[in-house]
Amino acid sequence: MAKTDNQTEYETHLQEHIDHTVANLHEAEDYLNEHADEITAGKKRVIEAKNDRRKESIEGFIASKNDETP
Q1: What does pTM read for this prediction?
Q2: Which of 12, 17, 35, 54 is 20 to 30 A off residue 27, Cα-Cα?
């Protein structure tokens, strides 16, 4: 059975979320690497915690996308 436009749009939407979240994750990691000596331990923990949440979100997006694949 062919996918409906809504299913295709949903998969496209999920992929956009995945791409955006991965980009933010890499940007934050690059920031940490470049400025490790300049930022406080507290700020570093905040960024690392946010990246942990990003990784969980990416896993969730991928799981949702896989659930929609026939």
Answers
A1: 0.83
A2: 12
3-state secondary structure 11-38: HHHHHHHHHHHHHHHHHHHHHHHHHCCC
36: its two tokens:
């490790």
Give the list of residues 6+ apart from residue 29 with CB closer than 8 angstroms, or none: 51
The span from the first CA to the last CA of the chain, in angstroms, equals 9
Long-range pairs of 1-7 with CB within 8 A, sequence gap ≥ 24: 1/70, 3/70, 7/68
Dihedral angle computed from the Cα positions of residues 14, 17, 18 and 24, in that order, rounded to the nearest 10 degrees: 180
Task: Answer whether 5's CB lies under 8 Å from 48's CB.
Answer: no
Instruction: Kindly report, residue by residue over 9-62, the tens digit of the pLDDT.
Output: 999 999 999 999 999 999 999 999 999 999 999 999 999 999 999 999 999 999
